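Structure (tokenized):
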């Protein structure tokens, strides 16, 4: 419990800075940016918040006092909203998977499902289908936004494969993907990136087969 509380408290400054970045943009009349918090990257921020989300939810349901529940409820809502604002599709999917996993482990889902009437089961199925359809539509539509299309990622993925082929056993080393990306591509017109936007390819490029084995 101490470790979980420490992680939750550690996330407060990151969440605060993320919303401060959004507020500054709104006050300045600018479009809402993808907040990066204290981590410098929107995808990294979402990945960090996905870890916090089930921990906050768990502590919320364990809390017995009303002030603690209110604080954790507001905190959890803020984390979820910041994940949405990060526009990280991996973060969206990760948040859904994290909450679903937490609910499955925390509640007797199969027993509750067996106790539901046919109408209740049908209602749950319809709601789940609508949520899935809405989420799928939003994610598919996001591929049409500039800088977020599939074509934007393929050249990064191809570079990661090239780096893996150069040193397949041990990779090129941690935090070297950005330099390898610059070496294999003309910048501009491509934009520099420090990671491959894919944990499997990232591990393969920087840590080789050894890294992939550790990841598995």
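Design, position by position:
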């Amino acid at each position: 419990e101490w470790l979980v509380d420490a992680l939750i408290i550690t996330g407060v400054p990151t969440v605060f800075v993320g919303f401060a970045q959004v507020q500054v943009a709104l006050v300045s009349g600018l479009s809402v940016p993808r907040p990066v918090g204290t981590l410098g990257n929107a995808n990294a921020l979402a990945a960090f918040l996905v870890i916090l989300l089930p921990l906050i939810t768990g502590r919320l349901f364990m809390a017995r006092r009303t002030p603690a529940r209110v604080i954790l409820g507001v905190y959890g809502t803020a984390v979820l909203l910041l994940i949405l604002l990060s526009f990280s599709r991996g973060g969206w999917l990760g948040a859904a998977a994290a909450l679903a996993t937490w609910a499955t482990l925390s509640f007797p889902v199969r027993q509750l499902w067996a106790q539901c009437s046919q109408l209740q089961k049908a209602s749950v199925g319809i709601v789940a289908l609508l949520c899935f359809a809405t989420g799928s539509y939003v994610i598919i539509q996001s591929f049409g936004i500039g800088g977020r299309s599939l074509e934007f990622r393929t050249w990064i993925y191809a570079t990661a494969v090239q780096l893996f082929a150069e040193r397949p056993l041990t990779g090129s080393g941690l935090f070297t993907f950005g330099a390898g990306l610059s070496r294999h591509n003309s910048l501009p017109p491509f934009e520099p990136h420090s990671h491959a936007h894919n944990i499997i390819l990232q591990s393969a490029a920087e840590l080789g087969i050894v890294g992939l084995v550790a990841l598995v």
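Reviewer-requested clarification: The two ends are 28 Å apart (CA to CA). The CA atoms of residues 62 and 154 lie 44 Å apart.
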